[in-house]
Structures are given as structure tokens and as C-alpha cells.
Amino acid sequence: MATTTIQMRAKGSLTIPADLRQRYGLDEGDVFSLVDLGDGSFFLTPRVSIVPKLVAELETMRDEAGLSVDDLLEGLPEARRQLYEERLRRGA
Q1: How would you classify the pairing of strands 32-36 and 42-46?
Q2: What radius of gyration do the chain's Cα atoms show?
Q3: pTM of the complete model
């Protein structure tokens, strides 16, 4: 495990070295969790969004079903109607 020294700047900002940003695919705007370990130590970890994973899973399902995005959009009004009627029957 390598150790890297960084310096706090104005307003508390820290710069993660370019080689680490590149290695871990970190970009401007990425969100991190900072855990205070209680002894003066901190643990910093990127918060990974599940959205890209979910999008990839949905794309796989769509491809496996042989549907295009246009197919999905075309069926949307009917799917909404069915959902609405189901909810009415349940009294929701």
C-alpha cells in the first residue's frame, strides 16, 4: 500500500493526485464518503452510483428481449393504462 502526501487548500479542498484519479476513474464532481475513525484518522472512499449498473442491466434485458428503445416507448401508454387500472381495482 503506497502513501501519498496531499495538502489542504483554501476552503478545505484536497487534490487527489492525477495517477490515482486515472487509476480509479475519478472525475470532477464525483462524490466521496469521509469516515472519521475517531482517532484523528479519516477513511476516504468514492461513493459509486448504482445508476450506471442499473442502466447496463436494463440494456441487457432489453437486448435479450429483442426490443428497441422505440419499442419500449411505443408500449408505454398501454403499460401505464394497465398499471392505472390495477391500482384502481386494489383501491390504491
Answers
A1: antiparallel
A2: 23
A3: 0.49
